[in-house]
Amino acid sequence: MKYNSILGRYLSKQIITTFLLVLVMVTGIIMMFDSIEALRRISGRSDTGMDYVVKYAITKLPETLDKILPFVMMIAAMMTFWRLSKSSEYVIIRASGVSIWEFLKPVLITVFAVGVINVALINPISSKMYEMHATLKYRFITRDPTAMLFSSKGLWIRESEGKDKVLVVEAKSLRQGKDETLSMQDITILEMDPSSQILRRIEGLVGELKDKTFRLRGVQIYKAGEKTESLASYEYQTSITIDRIKENFIAPDAISFWSLPETIAFYESSGFSAVRHQMRYLSLIASPFLLVAMVLVSALFSLKPAVRQGGVMLMITIGVVTGFLVYFSSQLIYAFGVNGYIPITLAVWAPTVIVLLLGTTIMLMKEER
Fold first, then answer.
1. Measured between alpha carbons, how far is 126 from 106 in angstroms, rounded to an integer?
2. Are 28 and 121 contained in the same domain?
3. Looking at the domain assignment, is residue 251 inside a domain?
């Protein structure tokens, strides 16, 4: 059966319609719980209001949906297959000479296309909203509406130095040395008062951070109403540490699929570990295949020639439990990869490939019966 045949288009329409329906329902439930969580967070706070609740729920939504998308697709596939079995459409299609693989082909192609669209088009939007959510939480915790997080383009960090001074440090490139020294180029240090008025601007061509001290070379110091001061070298005491900078590095989930290769190269050239970013990149590539694997799991438990034989709910329940086991086992293996216990490629691809192979094998056995 061709993908663009009448039956192929019908099956594709069924899975897409059900997927969108389940997605809308799940989205509403998630936003409700996230709104309740945001209301709990702002209780007793006079500096935030309902605008924080709305922003919190909306910006957190893509992060949650990204994690549960395989479940949404699995439930949508189960509902679709169960409906086709209940209405005897599945029996009629099979009786007309269509094999189970010809039946599944348009569904699997459609699901794979949904996964590709999610990675290529939806992910850049989701990653931006993830970054907005991280910044929103950081500003809420610090009670600073202008606080900024680390940018993947270089170093950009904001730090309070006592009650009367705030530092904003920017560097175009950085590299971590073996002796806990952070080397930087094109460094800018802004000293600001609590009202964000600039007190002094310090620029250095190169420098390093070690033992809470910026050691700069090729320095220009600017201060309002005073002549620019040029120095060959300058030491600037700070409370910023390398660990503090690492904490502000942007999370892999906040970087779009298209920007991850560049970011990975940046971290590796800077001397920092890029394992989490590499695994995120590989997991995005594997995600369409994971969706296909979840549909195969759904087909195993919800495609039955005659639903009147009973045991349908039991089979669907077993299918849902199996899907959860697949997901949690993949997350466990993923954690092993992040911590370096197993190769990252194996950690990302092993669960998906195993489920695909098992699903294909069982479907082939069912086809031969």
1. 27
2. yes
3. no
At 129-153, the pLDDT tens digits run: 988 888 788 778 767 676 655 544 5
223 Cβ contact list (under 8 Å, min separation 6): 199, 200, 201, 229
CA distance 137 to 148: 11
Residue 331 forms part of a structural domain: yes
Beta-strand pair 198-210/229-237? unpaired
Segment 74-105, tens digit of pLDDT: 999 999 998 888 888 888 888 888 888 889 99
**Interstrand relation of 182-192 and 198-210 (parallel, antiparallel or unpaired):** antiparallel
Do 256 and 277 touch, CB atoms closer than 8 A? Answer: no
Q: Report how far residue 361's alpha carbon sits from residue 258's, in angstroms, rounded to the nearest whole number.
A: 34
Residues 360 and 280 in one domain: yes
Asked which of 219, 242, 265 is the last residue of a domain, the reply is 242
Q: How many domains does the chain have?
A: 2
Show which of 223, 242, 261 is a domain's final residue.
242
Q: Find the domain containing 163 and state its range.
A: 155-242
The model carries a pTM of 0.77
Residue 26 carries which side chain, given as an amino acid letter? V
Amino acid 360 reads: T
pLDDT tens across 193-227, in order?
877 788 899 999 999 988 889 999 999 999 988 88
